[in-house]
Specification:
Organism: Shinella sedimenti
Shape: elongated
Protein name: Glutamine-dependent NAD(+) synthetase
CATH class of the largest domain: Alpha Beta
CATH topology of the largest domain: Nitrilase/N-carbamoyl-D-aminoacid amidohydrolase
CATH superfamily of the largest domain: Carbon-nitrogen hydrolase
Domain CN hydrolase: 10-252
Pfam family, one: NAD_synthase
Radius of gyration: 26 Å
Number of helices: 18
Number of strands: 19
Helix content: 25-40%
Pathway: Cofactor biosynthesis; NAD(+) biosynthesis; NAD(+) from deamido-NAD(+) (L-Gln route): step 1/1
Number of domains: 2
Structural class: alpha/beta
Bound molecules: nicotinic acid adenine dinucleotide, adenosine-5'-triphosphate, glutamine
CATH architecture of the largest domain: 4-Layer Sandwich
Length: 559
């Protein structure tokens, strides 16, 4: 006799998939394909991630009744599928009833929605803004799935202090299954492990953590789903940055449940992890927004070189066009380095000289500018001419312009509005210059899994070794107007990531006048950053949602 309460084995397929926000039909199709796969593998249950049917984060889309209706219809359709006796499904969806609007999960089995649970703890810090669009759910109880009492805390429910996991344990949950939409930042996998371990220790229950995959605007969801058993051992670990479904087997043992099989994948570290995040975020932005190809200005400098490498790795060389736009200050070295880089990457390389258009602008302005000194205006004209030409190529061929400014220069406003700031998306927006160097060196040695680019030195070593220069006037280098990048980056990390006081930064050995100047530049460049293209979030504090400073701001920290 097999009664449900005697169930001793549970096979859970964990689907770490890449949904698209707003593509309800596409996400439903992905859920169905995953369920078919799970059925083939003999799973009892398919676990999908937070708000899978809408894509995460759906932001203000959930304020549209038509969108919520479409999501609900998709959940009902998927529930109907489960009448076939195959795997049940846990899937995230946004829902509304007379009491409010919720970030919810549905449990589907035997042709029906057998339970719905709402997220209690709505994150409202950093990149998250969930209190804006969702109401707090009621404290959940476990769901009885084929005789097993499952606790389903949704993402922040396992991070926060509201006691959701404890409540689930006290009300009889036997396993905790947590659907997540957890974005990448450097070192996040370890942090998630610690968060989950804390809940495992507090509840005495095993916890399965399933995370979404893929880029959504500035965020990268890196997957890396895993579980800890109640004895605090890592039961399985899925890969990071890869869309995958894994079967895990759970056994009833000594009064509790133990996960005794599942994959054990390697988690990449440091440069590899950051590079792969840039790649995935860039690829998904371009593909999910329907661009067939991209174009970028390749200057012979390191920023555009690494952007070209990321673009080729993400899209393949035939979808990337590099354009060298030389002016009279462009050196022979730059011409050679840019050509070598494009050749190493195997992508199309055009040369469009800007002497004639810049001369045209200057001649049009000659009367207006009569009696004035030549300076930054004329320098910016070079950058703006390049920006205009790249946008023309974009319009003509439908290619998205890749923006190439790193976090160091975006911090201090070292970029020209409507010039090199033109473009749709920036793969290195959240990488300081020293990190750009580190990732470039790494990429010259390794090709990440799934990358479409070639092996070998794709960023010629001369580009890495030479002094960075914008070449907007003769013999110019970045260091003429900025401190050396190791110094600049340290000061910026203190100011931006750590919100340190200037006195504290000076105490680290920096020159006070330099620290004050960098702080000033950081504040006065806020207006530029507000007009800048989105780009991949890599740090805990990107210039997007994570750091929200006023543009009009007279505060300067003088101790
Ligand atoms: N608070 C504010 N709110 C709104 N608008 C404001 C503003 N402050 C200035 N502005 C406007 O912005 C204009 C100045 O901005 P913008 O025209 O961009 O020019 P600007 O910031 O003055 O100059 C661009 C800087 O970037 C450097 N650069 C350029 C290109 C490439 C690189 C590189 O190495 O990658 C470096 C260049 O050497 C220079 O230091 C002003 O003329 C004014 O109209
Ligand atoms: N001669 C050029 N040909 C093509 N694109 C250029 C050229 N000069 C600048 N650009 C574009 O403008 C961006 C800003 O470049 P700039 O040379 O001013 O300094 P940078 O920030 O050090 O970038 P890079 O390291 O790529 O040179 C470049 O990344 C590139 O996309
Ligand atoms: N979607 C969420 O609730 C995510 C919040 C959580 N702190 C995370 O970053 O993973």
């Amino acid at each position: 006799m097999t009664s449900e309460t005697e169930k001793t084995t549970l096979r859970i397929a964990v689907a770490q998939l890449n949904p698209t926000v707003g593509d309800v039909a596409g996400n439903l199709a992905k859920a169905r394909a995953a369920r078919a796969d799970a059925a083939t593998q003999g799973a009892d249950l398919l676990l999908l991630t937070e708000l899978f049917i809408s894509g995460y984060p759906p932001e203000d889309l959930v304020l549209k009744p038509a969108f919520l209706k479409a999501c609900r219809r998709a959940i009902d359709d998927l529930a109907t599928d489960t009448a076939d006796g195959g795997p049940g499904v846990i899937i995230g969806f946004p829902r509304q009833d007379e009491t409010g609007r919720y970030n919810a999960v549905a449990v589907l089995d035997a042709g029906k929605v057998i339970a719905v649970r709402d997220k209690v703890d709505l994150p409202n810090y950093g990149e998250f803004d969930e209190k804006r669009v969702f109401d707090q759910g009621a404290m959940p109880g476990p769901v009885n799935f084929r005789g097993v009492r499952l606790g389903i805390p949704i993402c922040e429910d396992i991070w926060g202090e509201l006691g959701v996991c404890e409540t689930l344990a006290e009300s009889g949950a036997e396993i905790l299954l947590s659907p997540n939409g957890s974005p990448y930042y450097r070192g996040k996998v370890d942090i998630r492990h610690q968060v989950v371990l804390k809940q495992v220790i507090e509840t005495g229950l095993p916890l399965l953590y399933a995370n979404q995959l893929g880029g959504q605007d500035e965020l990268v969801f890196d997957g890396a789903s895993f579980a800890f058993n109640a004895d605090k051992t890592l039961a399985f670990q899925m890969s990071q940055f890869e869309e995958t479904i894994a079967l895990t087997t759970w056994k009833r043992q000594g009064g509790g449940w133990v996960c005794d099989s599942g994959p054990m994948s390697r988690i990449p570290e440091r440069e590899e992890a950051d590079y792969r995040a840039c790649l995935l975020g860039f690829r998904d932005y371009v593909n999910k927004n329907g661009f067939k190809n991209v174009v970028l200005g390749l200057s012979g400098g390191i920023d555009s070189a690494i952007c070209a490498a990321i673009a080729v790795d993400a899209l393949g060389e035939e979808r990337v066009r590099c354009v060298m736009l030389p002016y009279r200050y462009t050196s022979e070295d730059s011409l050679k380095d840019a050509a070598d880089c494009a050749k190493a990457l195997g992508c199309r390389y055009d040369i469009v000289p800007i002497e004639a258009p810049v001369t045209g602008f200057l001649s049009a302005l000659s009367e207006t500018f009569e009696g004035t000194e030549e300076g930054i205006t004329e320098e910016n004209l070079q950058s703006r001419t390049r920006g205009t030409i790249l946008m023309a190529i974009s319009n003509k061929f439908g290619s998205m312009v890749v923006t190439t400014g790193n976090k160091s220069e975006m911090s201090v406003g070292y970029a020209t509005l409507y010039g090199d700031m033109n473009g749709g998306f920036n793969p290195i927006k959240d990488l300081y210059k020293m990190q750009v160097y580190a990732l470039s060196r790494w990429r010259n040695q390794y090709v990440p899994p799934g990358a479409l680019g070639p092996t070998g030195e794709v960023i010629p070593h001369n580009i890495i070794d030479k002094a960075p220069s914008a070449e907007l006037r003769p013999n110019q280098t970045d260091q003429d107007s900025l401190p050396p990048y190791p110094v600049l980056d340290d000061i910026l990390e203190c100011l931006v990531e750590l919100e340190m006081g200037t006195e504290e930064i000076v105490a680290r050995g920096h020159d006070a006048a330099t620290v004050h100047r960098i702080e000033h530049l950081l504040y006065i460049a806020e207006y530029k950053r507000r007009q800048s293209a989105p780009g991949v979030k890599i740090t805990r504090k990107n210039f997007g949602r994570d750091r929200r400073y006023p543009i009009t701001n007279r505060f300067r920290d003088r101790g």
